[in-house]
Write a structure and sequence with these properties.
Blueprint (H helix, E strand, L loop, with lengths): L25 E2 L6 E2 L1 H22 L5 H19 L2
């Protein structure tokens, strides 16, 4: 069976679920999407920061710095996805 551009036998390469780059992709536990190195690092960090925000809020601690960090991550991921 032929697949890929113009019937080539190569499988089409997958692309990052966030930025669309066609590079080596990584899976994160509990996620079905695959990400490039930069996006996987930001997604993993966002997951951890979200967990810490929840824990701080539940314990009644200030989470302002964590929320600011999450906003920076979100902005970076959004910019990367829009440049695809």
């Amino acid at each position: 069976m032929l697949c890929g551009p113009k019937g080539s036998e190569m499988q089409p390469t997958s692309q990052c679920s966030v930025c669309g780059h066609r590079v080596e992709l990584f899976e994160l536990p509990g996620r079905t999407e695959k990400y490039c190195l930069e996006c996987s690092a930001d997604i993993a960090t966002a997951i951890l920061v979200t967990t810490e925000i929840d824990a701080a809020t539940f314990a009644g601690r200030d989470a302002e710095n964590l929320v600011a960090e999450f906003a920076q991550l979100s902005t970076r991921l959004l910019a990367r996805s829009q440049s695809a």
